[in-house]
């Protein structure tokens, strides 16, 4: 039994659908099915009841889910703990980030910083906003790249870095595709495809719709941008996403439509205000500010 198999199993349970889970995991549906079947064969029990439209847990599967979820949580905690022992001769910096590193140039920033500071070992943990903030609160990470919209009150020390605006994504052939700009209220009857619910872009999208005078009909929620782009390109609905994110993917099967009213958020480098920053944290924070300024992000 492998950790990867447990992660695959949890994704299938999460989405109750092999096709969606496979898309989220970026593997083929047949490959995912083989992994789950191998897991069931090894255990000697059936974990999932499959139907044409959905998947549900068997009694054994329900109990196995609790064990698998606990193992994955322990595995992630173990990785964090073990990283503290790795290469003790190096200075350590653990950074948490929401899944936007490539879209906002954070990957390039970290690569260039490590080339200039070979004595510093950087560990990256990527997750959703609530999980990243929980790690920061527990001092399991030193810094976090996160959207300011996900921050509760004035709890953290915030270094604003990159602003971004919400825009609409529609399939080719959609009536909005012919327009360069719309008022969001014009989309009140549309089916929306949003990122997973929770603090962050989902809340920003819902609030933007409410501000424009309507409650959005959210047809689907996904955790991966690629999945949302694919679903929208098939004409199933429209979506609201950040400009820089869509510019990064540059997909030719969708059209981007500006919103007449701006709805913005900011990527920030966040730390705990009561915790004295190490020299390594100070170096990285200073380098990040200068890098953003020089690259005019």
UniProtKB/TrEMBL annotation:
<dbReference type="GO" id="GO:0032993">
    <property type="term" value="C:protein-DNA complex"/>
</dbReference>
<dbReference type="GO" id="GO:0003700">
    <property type="term" value="F:DNA-binding transcription factor activity"/>
</dbReference>
<protein>
    <submittedName>
        <fullName>Hydrogen peroxide-inducible genes activator</fullName>
    </submittedName>
</protein>
<dbReference type="InterPro" id="IPR005119">
    <property type="entry name" value="LysR_subst-bd"/>
</dbReference>
<comment type="similarity">
    <text>Belongs to the LysR transcriptional regulatory family.</text>
</comment>
<dbReference type="InterPro" id="IPR000847">
    <property type="entry name" value="LysR_HTH_N"/>
</dbReference>
<dbReference type="Pfam" id="PF00126">
    <property type="entry name" value="HTH_1"/>
</dbReference>
<dbReference type="GO" id="GO:0003677">
    <property type="term" value="F:DNA binding"/>
</dbReference>
<keyword id="KW-0238">DNA-binding</keyword>
<dbReference type="InterPro" id="IPR036390">
    <property type="entry name" value="WH_DNA-bd_sf"/>
</dbReference>
<dbReference type="Pfam" id="PF03466">
    <property type="entry name" value="LysR_substrate"/>
</dbReference>
<keyword id="KW-0805">Transcription regulation</keyword>
<feature type="domain" description="HTH lysR-type">
    <location>
        <begin position="1"/>
        <end position="58"/>
    </location>
</feature>
<dbReference type="InterPro" id="IPR036388">
    <property type="entry name" value="WH-like_DNA-bd_sf"/>
</dbReference>
<keyword id="KW-0804">Transcription</keyword>
């Amino acid at each position: 039994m492998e950790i990867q198999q447990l992660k695959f199993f949890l994704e299938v349970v999460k989405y109750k659908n092999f096709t969606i889970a496979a898309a989220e995991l970026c593997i083929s549906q047949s490959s995912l099915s083989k992994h789950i079947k191998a897991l069931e064969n090894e255990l000697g029990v059936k974990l999932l009841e499959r139907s044409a439209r959905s998947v549900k847990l068997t009694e054994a599967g329900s109990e196995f889910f609790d064990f698998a979820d606990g193992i994955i949580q322990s595995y992630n905690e173990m990785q964090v703990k073990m990283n503290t022992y790795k290469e003790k001769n190096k200075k350590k910096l653990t950074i948490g980030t929401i899944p936007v590193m490539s879209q906002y140039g954070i990957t390039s920033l970290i690569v260039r910083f490590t080339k200039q500071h070979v004595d510093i070992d950087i560990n990256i943990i990527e997750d959703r906003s609530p999980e990243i903030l929980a790690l920061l609160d527990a001092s399991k990470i030193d810094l976090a790249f996160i959207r300011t919209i996900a921050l509760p009150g004035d709890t953290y020390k915030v270094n604003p870095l990159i602003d971004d605006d919400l825009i609409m994504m529609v399939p080719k052939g959609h009536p909005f595709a012919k327009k360069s700009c719309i008022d969001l209220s014009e989309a009140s009857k549309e089916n929306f495809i949003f990122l997973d619910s929770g603090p962050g872009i989902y809340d920003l999208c819902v609030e933007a719709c409410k501000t424009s005078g309507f409650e959005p009909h959210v047809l689907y929620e996904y955790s991966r941008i690629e999945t949302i782009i694919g679903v929208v390109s098939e004409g199933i609905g429209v979506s609201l996403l950040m400009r820089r994110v869509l510019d990064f993917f540059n997909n030719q099967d969708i059209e981007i439509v500006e919103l007449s009213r701006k709805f913005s958020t900011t990527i920030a480098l966040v730390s705990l205000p009561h915790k004295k920053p190490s020299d390594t944290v100070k170096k990285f924070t200073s380098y990040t500010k200068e890098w953003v300024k020089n690259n005019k992000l």
